[in-house]
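Lest this sound abstract, we let one protein speak, letters for residues, whole numbers for local backbone shapes, and leave readers to judge:
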Amino acid sequence: MVRAVTARRWLLPCLISFISALAVISQCFLTSMTSRRPGSARSSCLSSQRFADDVLAFDMATPAADTIQLSINLFSDTECADARRFISRPAGPVELNKCLYSEEDKMEVFYTCEQGAKLHSVVYSGNGGCSGTPYLETKDIQNDKCSLMPPLGAGIWTWTGGCGA
């Protein structure tokens, strides 16, 4: 009799946990099978934020997404000389703390705000939900200043609307 009562007490929490995990896995599978519109944001279905939103419906420790207006100029040298510019993107909306896929470039980028006024950029090749080995990682990006981007050179990221701007 005692074993039957004990079994019933742990069966419901285990069943709820199993169903929750199944819902997350199903969401991940469906998300990876759907196509994305060019320029649309895509977040990893395995991130703690997505898990909290989809299954538990409360906010965990992941920062909320903020939108900034960001322009990017990349250079093949470390001094950001105009003659060495190889990419120039005009200002446009970019969400922080979210995996963003560019159909045009076939790359993903994940921007975060660090130390209240610096960007951190992680670039991934392809469309895999910002997972795997990064193609390029740039730290300590200061607003409207030449920031080193090893091994490619340097860049100037200019933003407004958040992250210390």
User: Anything to note?
Assistant: The two ends are 66 Å apart (CA to CA). The CA atoms of residues 112 and 160 lie 14 Å apart. Helices lie at 2-33, 48-56.
